Amino acid sequence: MNRLTRRAALALPLALPAVARAQDWKPGQPIRIVVPAAPGGTADASARLLAPFLQQHYGQNCVVENRSGAGGVIGTTEVVRAAPDGLTLLLGNIGPQAIGLSLYRSLPYGRDSLVPVCGTVRGPNVLVVHPSVPANTLPELVAHLKKNPGKLSFGSPGVGQSPHLTGVWFNQATGTEAIHVPFRGAGPAAMELVAGNIQYMWDNLTSGISQIQGGRVRALAVSSADRNPQLPDVPAARETMPELAKFDVNTWFGIFAPAGTPRPVVDSINAAMKAWHGTEAVQARWREMGGVSLYGTPEQYAAFVANEVEKWGEVIRKEGLQMDLG
After folding, report:
1. H helices of 215-296, where?
2. What is the DSSP letter of 251?
3. What are the boundaries of the signal sequence (predicted)?
4. Is the pLDDT assigned to residue 4 strictly greater than 60?
5. Going by fewer Cβ within 10 Å, which terminus of the chain is more open, N or C?
6. What is the pTM of this model?
7. In this predicted structure, what is the pLDDT of residue 23?
């Protein structure tokens, strides 16, 4: 399974005995998927794509509930405190499930408070600017920022989310200053960018591509090591300036359950999601959004998440970034 890490792939044999049990569990009550962000972003899109499939698969209602705030911590905490019965799931992401574990001084949960069930999608962030910004390339934006230190503002879907940390890393690497304006999700942030109330942001490509294609914002670079097929003319940030040679960020999303959720429950949901990932509708949606499927067994997904926790922990410690919650 080359979509995840090689380390994760080594865990595949461990999952095989559980496959036979995957169909043993079925929910006896409605399922809810908690999205720790506002409507309109990739997390929300993933959840609303998955919910009707699970509803049909299990014959139970499956509802999506948005619980935004504190960089995803509020929604995550709600799921952590829920009964571990498979009826409350989290559509988590790189922010509260990886970056936040090292970024915040105190959290109401730890890395073992959730069970990774299955990924949904991953993809780069994209640097987008309001049309009024006098920059058509990333180096031109850097020059503009240096001429106006601390005068421009950049948005994000919340403190501690991938677009926020991508923006922080970008400013540090290029020696620029800008005001960070956090919002309760990618959707509200994008709306403020289109309105011109913020000047730029690193948006998830999976949620921001429609604004780019509609000409409402201008894309200058993607955060991944390579260009994205959906935007072949937009360079990778590391192509554009020597200072960004090591710049490589991909954001990701996936389903988590409260710690203590029985393995047959995890296996059943993972098996359902494997079928979901295989549908043409989901594959087409990921292509349309500029993302890549993040399917993996529970072991593969857990290893992937653990690797992300370690990677961002090292970045945050190296930069001395620490924040208080709230």
Report:
1. 237-240, 263-277, 280-289
2. E
3. 1-22
4. no
5. C
6. 0.81
7. 57
